[in-house]
Write a structure and sequence with these properties.
The structure holds 2 protein chains of 2 kinds.
Chain A: H1 18-23, H2 28-36, H3 39-49, H4 61-66, E1 77-82, H5 91-98, H6 100-114, E2 118-123, H7 128-143, E3 148-151, E4 156-164, H8 174-181, E5 205-209, H9 210-222, H10 224-229, E6 231-232, E7 235-236, E8 238-245, E9 251-256, E10 259-260, H11 261-266, E11 280-284, E12 292-294, H12 295-299, E13 308-309, H13 311-315, H14 318-321, E14 329-334, H15 339-353, H16 359-376, H17 382-395, H18 403-417, H19 419-427, H20 429-434
Parallel strand pairs in A: 1-2, 1-5, 2-4, 8-14
Antiparallel strand pairs in A: 3-4, 6-7, 8-9, 10-13, 11-12, 11-14
Helix pairs in contact in A: 2-6, 2-9, 3-6, 5-6, 6-9, 15-16, 15-18, 16-17, 16-18, 17-18
Chain B: E1 5-9, E2 12-16, H1 22-29, E3 55-60, E4 73-74, E5 84-87, H2 92-107, H3 123-131, E6 148-150, E7 154-156, H4 166-173, E8 181-183, E9 190-192, H5 206-210, E10 216-218, E11 231-236, E12 245-251, E13 254-260, H6 274-279, E14 287-291
Helix pairs in contact in B: 2-3
Classes of the chains: A alpha/beta, B alpha+beta.
């Protein structure tokens, strides 16, 4: 049984209330940090833990904190990014619904570490129940003296506010989130300056994902070294994976990083295998924006080694044969799934969610969606496939924020790995409308490259 | 920090003040190394970075840290560092990316230049001519909007808009209140006033000058004439609201349009008020300074050749 950190007490009835959470060792991190540690100690522990941002980019949290500018007389802010809107990712919502106090506790400790006296939780507008739950949790914590003025008599003041967003995917990008939080249109800012220098209201700001912040309290209680022991290599700790798609047991799982992908999909502890006895065709390993991989490449690396659930192992092979851990939205597709339709669906999402600020993303996402729609509905041409690759290349890297890349990668990778399926769609429009291409040879073992002697 | 920093753009070295953007450093050099800019406007704070036509490659970050920047950067929003090496037209990657951006900008543009008032002084026209491809690969319906009157003097033709945000910045920074902005998202976003409202203040006319395309046009000039049949003349008058320095566009004896004076990058020197722009259309209102200098390559100069320039001689034999 793997170690659980965030979801350890998830099955205890009433864990969403302050009393039960406190009885099970909750808010110990706040007591420890505020009473016995200095702010720099907390940052140091987080650095030692090797915790990496759980929102998608995987940037080390401790390092991000140490970049925060600390000019005199200027307030600093901690903003929790709870604008989880990546298709296939639903871990933060789960965490906020069932153990909201984990997040609040992490927020208090993190705000203390950064010296922030006002912190915000920016929640996606669609998550109205979660907003209520968080507000209730904040009120409970405040009643118990863990929030407000002079917390636990240590002289540290902190207010946490919950801010509902409008439900735009782009507001999950940190600078767009800050714009939206300031009450403006959620357009990503042009960087530099980075939020650590000039973020919310022009003040130094740290934006962290819900899961990263929630993990901080455990790190404070048990120490950064203890956290670093879990996991593999530079991917330390545990990660929430939102497993969905054609599997027997979809849901949110906490895994120790370093678990093999094969075990994650097929073991009964996790996904429990492919549903209805079908065979695995493809996996989107980290939420819709990461490259899709066929069965043979997701289970095994190009050199035949098993692929592991970690930042490094999933990215092994770069864009040619690798993908990314991203935000942990693990979408499994069986042999009946149509990759073209799936790609079109993702593309439709990015077209809808592009903010329209910079031209490659604004125009390119719509263009890709239209071409993919044409291929999916049997009006495609052979040249469309190359056109898609070219358009995705023109978007990638040329935009202000990573949404452009996120829109380009699924299309580029789908064509890279499933080109024959796209071609089949173009050549057999009638058949593509009623049936699908099936598993083909995507699950066949990868030919091992012979070493030159 | 008064020391100058050295930056190399397309193998041309120049020393500029710290804090200068790559684009402005390139403009100091001038000529072909200047990246095109559709959304950047030096007079408007915070503009730029959106159209991505000014992308350049930074092949050496600075003298201290010679690593190249991983992606192409928007030159209008990236400040120079000492010892920075920038590649603009010498980098095939940049040329290719720019071609892509031009194609993106044009896929939803109606390409109605023959009936567009901006034709001849349109930045998008110049851009696509200089950096674009001759054909588009886009085979779908373009997005369309209804034409809107915003105020009695300005027409908004949203189809042509490239969403450069210049008019939004202008309203924010030049006028005392902004009533228009970007509505919607992605390729459905549009300039609008939300509830149909007139943009009505003394400096609202400037949005026409800053618009790089024909999306915002002067209703007092619409369909009156092609730009290249008119003759620009610098003039000024005493105005209590603005500097009063303008360009009058003559058709014969008649002033058919008044605009701010624009520099070689199409940016106005100083913003002018609506009284000067829309109401003073008689020669007697103005003190004439002399003909505006127009770049010889511009289509605007096609009707008034400089006498010193010889007309091109066409060799009839080759036809």
């Amino acid at each position: 049984m793997a170690q659980k950190i965030l979801l350890k007490n998830i099955n205890i009835p009433g864990i969403n209330t302050f009393e039960v959470y406190r009885q099970h060792g909750g808010y110990a991190a706040v007591e420890k940090a505020l009473k016995t540690m200095s702010a720099d100690d907390v940052v140091e522990e987080v650095k030692k833990s090797g915790l990496r941002g759980r929102g998608g980019a995987g940037f080390p949290t401790g390092m991000k904190w140490s970049f925060l500018a600390k000019p005199e007389g200027v307030p600093r802010y901690l903003v929790c990014n709870a604008d989880e809107s990546e298709p296939g990712t639903f871990k933060d919502r789960y965490l906020m619904t069932h153990t909201p106090h984990t997040l609040i506790e992490g927020m208090i400790v993190s705000s203390f570490a950064l010296g922030a006296n006002t912190s915000y939780i920016y929640v996606r507008g669609e998550m109205m129940p979660q907003i209520r739950i968080l507000e209730k949790a904040i009120a409970e914590a405040k009643n118990a003296g863990f929030l407000g003025k002079n917390i636990l008599g240590t002289g540290y003041d902190l207010e946490i506010y919950v801010q509902p967003g409008g439900g735009a995917y782009i507001c999950g990008e940190e600078t767009a989130l800050l714009e939206s939080l300031e009450g403006k249109r959620g357009n990503p800012r042009i960087k530099p300056p980075f939020p650590a220098i000039a973020g919310l209201y022009g003040c130094p700001t740290v934006v962290n994902n819900v899961e990263s912040i929630a993990a901080v309290s455990w790190i404070v209680v048990n120490g950064g070294d203890e956290y670093a022991k879990i996991g593999i290599g530079r991917s330390t700790g545990t990660k929430l994976i939102s497993a969905s798609g054609n599997i027997n047991k979809p849901g949110v799982y906490e895994i120790e990083l370093g678990l093999s992908v094969e075990e994650f999909i097929y073991s009964d502890e996790y996904c429990g295998g492919i549903a209805n006895g079908k065979r695995l065709k493809a996996v989107v390993a980290g939420g819709s924006s990461v490259p899709i991989l066929p069965a043979n490449l997701i289970l095994k690396l190009a050199n035949g080694q098993p692929r592991l659930m970690s930042y490094e192992s999933l990215a092994e092979g770069g864009f040619a044969t690798g993908t990314m851990l991203g935000s942990g939205g693990f979408i499994v597709m069986d042999e009946d799934a149509c990759v073209v339709r799936n790609t079109w669906n993702f593309s439709r999402f990015y077209h809808h969610e592009s903010c329209g600020q910079c031209s490659p993303c604004r125009e390119g996402t719509g263009w890709m969606e239209k071409v993919l729609h044409r291929i999916e509905y049997g009006h495609g041409k052979m040249s469309d496939i190359d056109l898609l690759v070219d358009v995705s290349k023109k978007i990638e890297g040329n935009t202000i924020c990573p949404l452009g890349d996120a829109a380009a990668w699924p299309v580029a990778s789908a064509i890279r790995h499933f080109r024959d399926e796209f071609e089949w769609h173009v050549n057999n429009p009638k058949a593509a409308m009623d049936g699908n291409y099936g598993l083909a040879n995507y699950a066949d073992p990868i030919p091992v490259v012979e070493e030159a002697s | 920090m008064s020391e100058k920093v050295k930056v190399t753009i397309d193998n041309i070295e120049i020393e500029v003040d710290p804090g200068t953007t790559i684009l402005n450093a390139a403009r100091m050099i001038g000529g072909d190394v200047v990246p095109p800019a559709m959304c950047y406007y030096s007079k408007l704070k915070g503009s730029g970075g959106k159209c991505r036509t000014c992308l350049v490659k930074v092949s050496q970050g600075s003298a201290k840290d010679p690593r190249p920047m991983p992606k192409l950067v928007a030159s209008c929003r990236t400040t120079v560092m000492d010892g920075m090496v920038v590649q603009n037209i010498t980098s095939p990657e940049v040329v290719e990316a720019r071609k892509g951006v031009v194609e993106f900008l044009l896929i939803n543009h109606p390409l109605d230049c023959p009936v567009c008032d901006q034709a001849g002084e349109c930045h998008l026209q110049d851009l696509s001519f200089e950096h674009g491809k001759d054909q588009s690969r886009y085979e779908f319906k373009r997005r369309t909007f209804e034409m809107v009157d915003i105020g009695d003097k300005i027409k908004l033709h949203m189809n042509r808009c490239i969403l450069c945000y210049r008019c939004v910045f202008t309203a924010d920074q030049i006028t005392d209140n902004r009533v228009h902005g970007i509505l919607g998202r992605g390729d459905a976003s549009e300039i609008g006033t939300y509830i149909s409202k007139a943009i009505d203040n003394d400096f609202s006319g400037n949005v026409i000058d800053v618009c790089p395309v024909g999306a915002l046009t002067d209703k007092t000039f619409r369909f009156k004439n092609r730009v290249w049949f008119t003759k620009p003349v610098d003039a000024h008058r005493d105005c209590d609201k603005c500097c009063g320095k303008v360009t009058l566009w003559y058709k014969g004896e008649e002033v058919i349009r008044v605009t701010g004076r624009k520099d070689q990058y199409g940016e106005v020197d100083e913003f002018i008020c609506n009284t000067c722009r829309f109401d003073k259309k008689k020669t007697s209102d103005w003190t004439i300074e002399g003909p505006t200098k127009v770049d010889r390559h511009s289509v605007i100069s096609s009707n008034h050749y400089d006498e010193k320039e010889l007309l091109p001689v066409i060799d009839r034999k080759i036809f």
